Amino acid sequence: MYSFDVVRPATVADAIEALAQDEALPLGGGQTLIPTLKQRLSSPSVLVSLSGLAEIQGVCKTDDGKLAIGGGTKHVVVAREAAADYPALAALAGNIGDPAVRNRGTIGGSLANNDPSACYPSAVLASGATVVTNKRQIAADDYFQGMFTTALDEGEIITEVRFPIPEKAAYMKFEQPASRFALTGVFVAKYADGVRVAVTGASEGGVFRWTEAEAALSSKFSPDALAGLTVPADGMISDLHGTGAYRAHLVGVMTKRAVAAAH
Amino acid sequence: MPKDHGIGASPKRREDVRFLTGAGQYTDDINVYGQTYCYFLRSDVAHGKINRIDTSDAEKMPGVVRIFTGKDFEGVGGLPCGWQVTDRFGQPMKEPGHPVLAQGKVRHVGDPIAAVVADSLEEARNAAEAIVLDIEELPAAVDMKAALGDGAPLVHDDIGSNLCYDWGFVEDNKGAVDEAIKNAAHVTTLELVNQRLVANPMEPRVAVGDYSRANDESTLYTTSQNPHVIRLLMGAFVLGIPEHKLRVVAPDVGGGFGTKIFHYAEEAFVTFAARKINRPVKWTASRSEAFMSDAHGRDHVTKIELALDKDNNFVAIRTETLANMGAYLSTFAPSVPTWLHGTLMAGNYKTPNIYVNVKAVFTNTVPVDAYRGAGRPEATFQLERVIDKAARELGVDPIALRRQNFVTEFPYQTPVAVVYDTGDYNATMNKLEEMADIKGFAARRKASEAKGKLRGFGVNCYIEACGIAPSNLVGQLGARAGLYESATVRVNATGTISVYTGSHSHGQGHETAFPQVVAEMLGIDESMIDIVHGDTSKIPMGMGTYGSRSLAVGGSAMVRATEKIINKAKKIASHLLEASEADIELKDGKFSVAGTDKSVAWGDVTLAAYVPHNYPLEDLEPGLEETAFYDPSNFTYPAGAYACEVELDPETGKVTIERFAAADDFGNIVNPMIVSGQVHGGLAQGIGQALLESCAYDENGQLLSASYMDYAMPRADDVPFYSVDHSCATPCTHNPLGVKGCGEAGAIGSPPAVINAVIDALQSGGHKVEHINMPASPQRVWAAMHG
After folding, report:
1. pLDDT at B316 (0 to 100)
2. Does position B161 have pLDDT exceeding 80, yes or no?
3. At B576, which CATH number?
4. Does B553 score more than 70 pLDDT?
């Protein structure tokens, strides 16, 4: 990697100030950024580590009954501390990467990167969660703007994610054999006012909502309700591990399985 | 009662203490005072003409010691090929040059263009980025069939085509084979791909070159399976350094799997550069570099025909294979699709007529060479797949069809040159049927179907030629090396022993297993014996470890040297005991006079050898150290039967392995635990090939699977708990230990079992799928199900 400086601020305010420097980049768990640096594909002047920000760590319930997760919270912590209130989310976190990844990677880092095959974006979108930053609150539907693209501005960091807790939910991931990222992952969440279905790994446009399935499942929350529904293969990712047609097929299979597994 | 020491016992691997506690001494752990670091600038195009390399800016960068390009190697030898294959028409193969750094053209992604030597690796990388390249990209030859077509881009312009050789074996059998196939009652034909793989040892390659001006000596520390082979090839053919001025050290090596046999450009470069700049030069491959510079494995495209008579006896086999050589001939590449592949095409069966045709092809890809099994997995896969297909076409039981055609009388002369010395294929199949619980399969299939899954059962046999190899035979076949092995047994005055072996351990457990053999012969404790390997300045000239040869050949050399030790020690003992040498017996570390209670301990004899006060000096030299070289009279032929049971998710195409049984005949076994471990590792690699691994290039020769994000290695949860057995032993008839070798069996025998099981599962679900190419990845299986 090229040379750079590292700062490790203790408060969000200091972090934001540090990020205002030229060619500064925020460093969450580093699960994407560090390999990128090692390949010399990025050359920041300064890395602003967010791992010392105590105020953006941890999991708690808000007064209005939502599950709030600090942006700097590691996957392993979510897997443990969200298990009672939002088991489907905890299970998702507990199955990201391997133990080394889960002990470094953070929810905020994953969402800010918005890898099209990452797990978390599907949970955030299917839950209609709110992404809270140092300066605003962004609805999930507005946050994800395509592969590796989000509503975040330069120098803006995710401080918290607020999840409405569903009646039932489940995440089903079909793993890409090599990387074990989601070749296709589907998060289904049932709320009193309807069902939301979000798909990761499949589309060239990044995480997306499968609205036809949402409508069908909102009227009847059962795998049978999905009979005959398909997503088009156009616009699906096609690579060594799966054609667009295969991914489109998996969307149907994984959705059905998520509905069956939801609890 | 299992033995607790000596041959047949399973002591834990003593080397694991240092490996598992981080005390191993790998090449990258070696740092020499004044060391510089080397970074290779590699081609990012598959094929291109080098118009200009401008290093002037880069040379001014901080820390740069010197930058080398192909120009610096004009007049220096290229990397040699160690095996010359003669084609069907009696002509030698085409053997294009292989420069250390590219000259004139680049021929694959990863081909080294320039090397920057600097005070630190980061400075070397910085300077490499400042090198200005003018490379004119040329169309690439990637697909083998297209590469042989008219007007294909030429990888090597000077040889006029991309054909390395067109080999026929046995050429004189061709007419008889064609005739037998024409007249057969049934012919089953199968076209298949044995895909390209990357070996991916845990430790990437590393090389450190050092030069001593004081005595004009070069030392190369390198991640090699055979340091003497590297010394010979690099010293004599590339750099012109006489052997007595060149030391090659291969210390702890973290896995080889074949890819660390070969002599690589980076080894020659660091040795060359260290002499030029008079400072040590170190190179450590990154994992990305390993993907594009380690020799790859397999990459065959084959059509096989199996002809049967009306009673389902095999009457002929005919194969046509395209074998990828990549852009240059790696050290032993030409031998893999020929002598390590064609000679195994009889498998375990008495097929009277066999003809194998192989066309080796140059392409703009990384060179391909031996990878665990080397040629034998390719032979086994096609044969065992076509037999399964024939059984299905004929409506007969695949096990019964195999049994009917087994070779049952030994020695057996195959129609493809080799002679199987011994074996019992029905015995391993009987054992396998018991281990695999075939009777319970129907119930297990029913249980899978109740969950919406398909279940399949696949079986296959394999045979391999190991204990490589009789030197006079391989010499006739084109090998430019002998394939004996050496050992020196040095007994110290106090009776402890250092064994210097030409074999090399890079995970096999030699440091544990070899002492078991010597201890058994002498009747002393294994802890008194240490194994020394991997340093040409210590060990006798040895050929190293590959082809499951260490125990069969290296172990035999050790036995011969130990026999010489015993002979001399008995002479010393007879003097000490004042008895006739003929009456001296060695048992439990004690020399005694037969029929008396007179004895002398091992340690007293060894002490006498080095403190010869009471010693027959007029008849016998002092000291107790002996060397033996062992050249085998034949290959060894491990064989066995494997069974795999898979569950297949018809909705996703995902295959999981539920059960795997392996019944192997390895002859005699020295350490059953290590043997089981070798089989487990081989099975994991074979299952990796069958279900996961694939090295893929696009049509421009860009490597698509260039990291673990896309190259799927098997992980612990991809493989089942194996059931392995090696009790059906028919000892090898021609080496002193009766051993056959076990290192490659798992990787050779498992891919067809897995694919046979996948096809069985698909057929059970009504899917008329006759074959699926490896890896049987979820998308490929799903696509096959949906036409």
Report:
1. 98
2. yes
3. 3.30.365.10
4. yes
Q: How many CB pairs under 8 A join A and B?
A: 47
How would residue B2 be classed by pLDDT, with cut points 50, 70 and 90?
A: confident
Contact B655, B756 (CB under 8 A): no
Structural domain includes residue B504 = yes
For the stretch B221-257, pLDDT in tens is 999 999 999 999 999 999 999 999 999 999 999 999 9
Whether residue A149 lies within 8 A of chain B, CB to CB, comes out as no
Chain B residues closer than 8 Å to A183 by CB: 778
- Its ipTM equals 0.95
- Per the CB < 8 Å rule, is A246 touching B125? no
Q: Where are the domains of chain A?
A: 5-49, 54-163, 168-261
Question: B429 with B663: CB under 8 angstroms?
Answer: yes
- Of A251, A92, A68, A55, nearest to A181 (Cα)? A92
Pick among B779, B780, B781 to test the A interface (most A CBs inside 10 A)? B779
What is the identity of the amino acid at A131? V
Phi-psi region for residue B312, left (φ > 0), alpha (ψ -120 to 50) or beta? left
Question: Do B416 and B378 belong together in one domain?
Answer: yes
Whether cis (ω within 30° of 0) applies to the bond prior to B775 is: yes
Min Cα separation B196/chain A (Å) = 14
- The 10 Å Cβ neighbour count of residue B97 is 13
B597 and B704 in a single domain? The answer is no
> What is the pLDDT averaged over residues B539-567?
97
CATH no. for A168-261: 3.30.390.50
Number of domains in chain B: 3
* CATH number of the domain residue B76 falls in: 3.90.1170.50
Q: Do B652 and A250 touch (CB under 8 A)?
A: yes
Per residue in A198-207, pLDDT (tens digit) is 999 999 999 9
Domain around B71: 27-80+100-138+205-284
Rounded CA separation B636/B463 (Å): 10
Contact A179 B708 (CB under 8 A): yes
Alpha-carbon gap, residue B58 to B66, rounded angstroms = 9
| CB pair distance less than 8 Å for A240 and B704 | yes
Report helix, strand or coil for B620: coil
Contact B778 A242 (CB under 8 A): yes
**Residue B557 located in a structural domain:** yes
What would the two tokens of residue B19 be?
């490996």
Helix, strand or coil, per DSSP, at residue B401 = helix
Q: How far apart are CA A160 and CA A156, in angstroms?
A: 12
For residue A32, the one-letter residue type is T
Q: Coil, strand or helix: which one is A79?
A: helix
Three-state secondary structure of B101-119: CCCCEECCCCCEEEEEEEC
Q: Quick one: which of B219, B211, B322, B199 has its CA closest to B261?
A: B199
Question: Looking at B222, B255, B284, which one is the last position of a domain?
Answer: B284
Q: A174, B652: Cβ pair inside 8 Å?
A: yes
Nearest chain B residue to A182 by CA distance is B709
Task: With beta carbons less than 8 A apart as the criterion, state whether A94 and A79 touch.
Answer: yes
Distance from CA of B324 to the nearest CA of A (A): 21
pLDDT of B255-267, one tens digit each? 999 999 999 999 9
